[in-house]
Amino acid sequence: MKNSIGREIPEVIEGYGKTIPFAGAFTIQPAMNRQAPKVKSMHPGRQKVVDTLESVFQQIPITDGMTLSFHHHFRNGDGVVNQVLATAAALGIKNLKVALSSVFPVHETLIAHMKNGVVTSLDTNYMSGPVAKAVANGVLAAPVVLRTHGGRARAIECGQLPIDVAFIAAPAADEYGNLNGVQGPAACGSLGYAFPDAEYADHVVAVTDYIVEYPLAPISIPQCRVDYVVKVDCAGDPKGIVSGTTKITKDPVGLKIAAMAAKVIEAAGLLKNGFSFQTGAGGVSLAVAHFVRQRMEQEQIVGSFALGGITGYMVEMLEKGFFKKLIDVQGFDLEAIRSIQTNPNHLEVSANFYASPFNAGCAVNKLDVVVLGATEIDVDFHVNVVTGSDGVIMGGSGGHADAAAGAKVTIVVANLLRGRLPIIVDQVLTATTPGETIDVFVTERGVAVNPQRPELLQQLVAAGLPVKEIQELKAMAEKIAGVPQKLKTSDRIVAVVEYRDGSVIDVVRQVNQ
């Protein structure tokens, strides 16, 4: 069957189950209750601190077929996932599902566990590095489930992703299980992506290298949700947090795109007091923030908040008075960690608060503008951030589809050519974010506006911006680089791409070798 954007979706996918085809960004209305974790009691005198991960496995006990969850706030510096799975392998445990909010190159040992049957299922929001390549090449029999950040929180809270044991990499803990991410040698900042796991998992294990006297302060995740505390030599390396992020680009083409995107924001009439903003950590995205800041300074504009994964540049904008608040679900660098430690206007929030579509209102709904990237965009403005031009998984939605759905204006910025290939295609290889939630596409050769936003088109034309039809930009790119050959894929599905509401927006098929 075809979903509403024309993608072929099987009614049933082996290893995934019955599918709900994507029918529109705001079509599915929830008819369910939040799940409830097991009720427990804790008698006075009982100790939560255990000596080893192996002891935790035995005390719970962890058995074949369970779902173990992890968060990714250490990004490529994570030290917990590999330790936990090595313990599972040593104990002979098989058929585990790993629900890890994002997968990075540091998690390469997952491949061996997948090959030997310790791990047979993976649920994540983003994948890069060796694990992503192995999945794309069919290392798992069951397809990986790729969610959005808000979609993962929704799935956990609504019982669609039940967690047996959540392992929380905790930079600081006390003996009774109070946790935070802002103290200790492995401080990583916000623990926002671990909040749903802690709240809804049947068992919660804090893995830390820094235990302080009770009570810990401040508290991000409270003792009433933590069952065990395990001290290890290293919970994570904060230096790995900055992997994959950059400073403001110095590339002239990137700066041209960023300057044009800032002009789009101003022409749309959104750059005014109370302005709210989200951008990524890439060089062009940060350059957009730089040009926006210049205009805010010139016009003496003070924004209400900046949202999302927080970088040092956004911290500086807070400290210089350009924004009143930062809403932080994930720190992208060491400056973000420093800021959330000390600044009461730098707020730590959960993935649910940030982006879940099934609650009484998430933060992305309050965004004026979000600036996003793309690996491909098609003539219907659908965006791919999951697969590269070779068909191999190299990313994931993360907060892409969430923020695009919530913001008043969603801007995608990208060079017209990516790796010598046109970025605009007739149909993206893998649809991640639907075109109905993308408003403007900005390149160095011009600006394309979604036809569904005629009033925005008029505003940009009136401001003198180089507005072009997206087909016109596509023709420009093809004149330079030619028309790319269509990639051939097999019938085998290696990943299911869920939209934030749990419907299936696309699937990733194994590339023919």
Automatic annotation (TrEMBL):
GO terms for molecular function: citrate (pro-3S)-lyase activity; citrate CoA-transferase activity. It catalyses: citrate = oxaloacetate + acetate; citrate + acetyl-CoA = (3S)-citryl-CoA + acetate. It is found in: Cytoplasm. This is Citrate lyase alpha chain. Pfam families: CitF. The keyword Transmembrane helix does not apply. InterPro entries: Citrate_lyase_asu, NagB/RpiA_transferase-like. Its main location: cytoplasm. GO terms for cellular component: ATP-independent citrate lyase complex; cytoplasm. Keywords: Cytoplasm, Lyase, Transferase. Transmembrane segments: none annotated. GO terms for biological process: acetyl-CoA metabolic process. Its EC number is 2.8.3.10, 4.1.3.6. The keyword Transferase applies.
